[in-house]
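Below is one such protein, fold included:
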Amino acid sequence: MAHAIIEYSANIEDRLKLDELIEKVHNAAINSGVFPVGGMRTRAARRDHYRIADGHPDNGFVHVLMKLGPGRDVATKKKAQDFIFAAIDEHLLPLVKKCPLAVSFEMVELPENRINQNNIHDYLKARKDAG
């Protein structure tokens, strides 16, 4: 189980290619070999109210937060982190070359005392079996 939440400043939305970024983060997480397809969720949240560095209106940010189910060792999490951040970095490189941009990535493990219900794995199997 992993959730990727992409936060970004509103001032870069028209240049961010958000749908592509969501797809790249999602696919990188899955292709890292650490997270199952049926447990992966990726979403984005635009932030309209923010202040970055000196407050100049050109300053932007992208922050990706990965929330993981418990139980993976440090080396496994680091492997996934590096793989996913490389995809983020590659996607944002053209924007980084054009404007002041703070890019960050954070991975946190959720506590065991959470509720998680998911029947998506069953549907994925049925789709695969159907052809």
Observations:
- The two ends are 25 Å apart (CA to CA).
- The chain has a mean pLDDT of 93.
